[in-house]
UniProtKB/TrEMBL annotation:
Biased composition (Basic residues): 45-60
Pfam families, alphabetized: Myb_DNA-binding
Protein's name according to its UniProt entry: SANT/Myb domain
Domain of life: Eukaryota
Domain SANT: 1-44
Residue ranges, annotated region (Disordered): 31-60
The organism of origin for this protein: Hexamita inflata
Length: 60
């Protein structure tokens, strides 16, 4: 599954994982949904790290 294709499909279809899996052909609905939620979790972790770093540098 190419990241660019997935990003475009998510923008177009939102959380319609069945439509995305139909479009991508090489992934089923469960795989697309799992990838989406894993990506969301990674984005949250990165955001928290950035906030912590920003807070650390702003208090120095």
């Amino acid at each position: 599954m190419k990241k660019e294709s997935l990003k475009k499909a998510l923008k177009e279809f939102g959380k319609d994982f069945q439509a995305i899996s139909d479009l991508l052909k090489d992934r089923n609905q469960r795989q697309v949904r799992s990838h989406y939620y894993n990506s969301q979790e990674q984005l949250k972790k990165k955001s928290l790290k950035r906030r912590k770093l920003k807070k650390t540098y702003s208090t120095s």
